[in-house]
Amino acid sequence: MNGYLRFALAWLVSVGVGCTSAPVRYYTLTPPPDRTLPASETTVAIDVRVVHIPLQLNRSQLMVRAGPTELTLLENERWASPVNDEIKDAVRLEVQRRLGRMSGSRSAFTKLTLDIDVRQLEAELGRYAMLEASWSAILSSTDQGSTGARTTTCSFQTEEMIHSGYAGIVEGYQREIAALADRIVAVLTNTASGIDASCH
Fold it and tell me: Which residue of 11, 124, 141, 186 has the lowest C-beta tally within 10 Å?
């Protein structure tokens, strides 16, 4: 009887191991700290809102293009948090880093309200990752007790070539978020300085 029980237990364990599903991997758009650069600070209050994202992207799984007419959801490749939060947090961090490293940015404006309208966030495995968005910003500054606001609205599109797996897709998205932050800060610092800044 004991031998039978040992056999049955071993069989159940083997079946359980054979049915184990593939591990779920989680990704984030927020880049790790860049320790090659000096620490940065900014006194600008930054509020980033993702005001729109395509309905098909508003899910936990990563999505990739599998052909001219087909998109595939990757059940085991997931965002660490809702994708709109991933975009919001990554943009805020990248803008904050850039403002903190710019000389004189503290006196230009004291608050930045940034609305992001994501039109497309798309990738094809081993080929490309693409981000298309528009953004609208309100700069608020305090000068001798008076408060003023300036509004800027621009569009942005970029595409990154990728050559590796799903992590490569997310890294491509991270580079595109960094490029978006570069564009935002370049436009807004010129606007705050009274320069007619182009969105392109």
Answer: 11
Q: Which domain holds residue 58?
A: 2-192
Q: Does the residue 197 lie in any domain?
A: no
pLDDT tens per residue, range 70-95: 889 999 999 999 999 999 999 999 99
Total-model pTM = 0.80
Taking the chain, what is the end-to-end CA distance rounded to the nearest angstrom? 79
Name the domain count of the chain: 1
pLDDT above 90: residue 149: no
CB atoms within 10 A of CB 162: 22
Bridge partner residues of 122 (DSSP): 130
Domain-located, residue 199: no
Work out the average pLDDT over 29-43: 69
Highest mean predicted confidence (pLDDT) among 2-11, 72-81, 189-198? 72-81
Q: Can you tell me the distance from the alpha carbon of 165 to that of 129, in angstroms, rounded to the nearest whole number? A: 12
Structural domain contains residue 73: yes
Taking the C-alpha atoms of 105, 108, 111 and 115 in order, what is their torsion angle to the nearest 10 degrees? -90
Q: How far is CA 70 from CA 50, 124, 168, in A?
A: 26, 11, 20
Which CATH number goes with the domain that contains 81? 3.40.50
Beta strands in 53-163 (DSSP E): 61-65, 71-79, 111-124, 128-143, 146-161
- Strands 25-27 and 71-79, by their bridges, are parallel
| Best CA proximity match to 184, nearest among 88, 94, 85, 84 | 94
